[in-house]
Amino acid sequence: MGFAYFQAFSEGITMPTKSPSRGAAKAAAGARGAPRAMPGEAVAPGSAGGRETNPAALALALDHTLPAIDSLEGRLLEITRTLPGRTTFSTSLGIEDQAVLHAIAQSGAPIDVFTLDTGRHFPETLDTLEASENRYGIKIRVMFPDAREVEELVARDGVYGFRLAVENRKACCDIRKVRPLKRALAGAAGWVTGLRREQSSGRAHVPFAAWDASDALVKLNPLADWSLERLEAYIAANDVPINPLHARGFPSIGCQPCTRAIRPGEDIRAGRWWWENEDGKECGLHNRPRQKEAAA
After folding, report:
1. Fold category of 44-258 in CATH
2. CB neighbours of 152 closer than 8 A, spacing ≥ 6?
3. Domain boundaries, the chain
4. Could you give the residue numbers annotated as active site?
5. Mean pLDDT per 10-residue section of the chain, whose length is 296 residues
């Protein structure tokens, strides 16, 4: 597929994996046999005939068991076997998320798929959306921001007001991305993402699974330990459709006004909000304050 363009932009990192503890493996095994809840149905802690249904405990079990499963397809199936209720996947249609989408289609894992349309995507991103639906026969739900909130934001800050202050940019991301995301996640038991530890220093310690108290669900990162080399090899071996912007120096793709191609040697996320300081550049989807893990 020709992904050598990425090699100039990042260094390979081999992340250690840890074997599942006996207690974690036992908890995960018990969860597999638990009755599945319907989408949005609440599951009482400690129910299902004594089997573990506490979501924080299930998150801890998955964080130990997923690294021991080599294939992405196997990890996704383990997630859906373990978690009661609806599991959903948010795709940005970038290279990592295309790998996850392919694995969902190949494995048949019952995972709902959605994307966020901010109203400012590159045309190539929308082309990738259509190509993906046609290739896999999976309908990807498209979530839009509230029109009135967008109108009020632009009236207050201007069309490109997000470049004038970090607070303006975060407000734009909140309205166009974070709020639609929360609507899409409502009622879900698990949220699958394409986060990798190599993507940035801020993501270097991304867990495989963790209880997200802010959204009351388990956040899952099945690609957490994948290197760029492994990702590219998976994409090439399976002829996965990807955004053509990746071949033009865009390893990380967001809204068109907020994304540029990167230069050789730059961090792979350097093209996102490039006018800001490098530290902590996130849109708010994945860096909300983490609350102490607790039972639902």
Report:
1. Rossmann fold (3.40.50)
2. none
3. 44-258
4. 283
5. 41 39 41 38 44 89 98 98 97 97 98 97 98 98 98 96 92 96 97 92 90 96 96 98 96 94 89 75 48 35
